[in-house]
Structures are given as structure tokens and as C-alpha cells.
Amino acid sequence: MIKRLDVTEEAKRVIHQLAQQHGPLMFYQAGGCCEGTQPQCFVKGGYFPRMNDAMIGLAEGYEFWVDRDLFEYWKHAHFTLDVVDGFGPGGFSLETPLGKTFKVHYRLFTEEELKDLEPVKRNE
Q: Can you tell which superkingdom this protein's organism belongs to (predicted)?
């Protein structure tokens, strides 16, 4: 099966650092508002996905949720979670005090990949 989510080496390092500081984590990528569409990292349970939001995979063992409407727009795309230097919009995410911002790089799945995608988990 084709994964919907991958994580860069630099993002993995930051995730491990945050997990050591805060314990279990979760990611949520909203569809707009004050945080834009940047992925946000929270302590697990620090944010509650809405009904029908999509969990597209695990980032170093931690759930990566996408807003239901944003997922409908990006459901044909592969997400690569990365981290860059700088202060992202909102500042709610745990990496902000480190001077980092998580971001996602997208690419469209090929026709072949679309036939064998991992299923998503929906929040019910």
C-alpha cells in the first residue's frame, strides 16, 4: 500500500525533541483561519479533531489529522511533513519556541499509486 504521509529527517529530529519535552504528540492540519493551512503539533489530546476529519498517517508514531474539507481538496496528494526555520502563523504549535515551523510539501499521486493508497481513518 502507498503511504499518504512521509516525514523528512529534519522534521523527525524536531518531533523526537518535542516528544522528549512534552510526551505523546499529535498533528492537525486545518483548512484556514488564524493558523492557515500549516500543520500544527500539539500534546496528544490537546486538540480534538472534528467529526469526519481524516487521519492520513503517522508522523514518527503520532497521528497526523487533516481537516475534513482540506482533505477533500488534497485527497489525491501525498504529504511530506518538513520543518523550516522561522515563526509560522498563529504560533500555537509546539515547535514555535524552537524557532521552527512545520510545513507540508505536496505532490499528486500517480495513476498507479491512486489504485493502492492506504485507507484514512475518519473521526466519528
A: Bacteria
Burial class (CB in 10 A: 0-12, 13-18, 19+), 70: middle
Question: CATH assignment of 5-115, given 3.30.420, 2.60.120, 2.60.40, 2.60.300?
Answer: 2.60.300
SS3 113: helix
Segments making up each domain of the chain, as ranges:
5-115
The tens digit of pLDDT for each residue in 61-84 reads 999 999 999 999 999 999 999 999
Closest CA to 4 of 111, 115, 80: 80
pTM across the whole model: 0.93
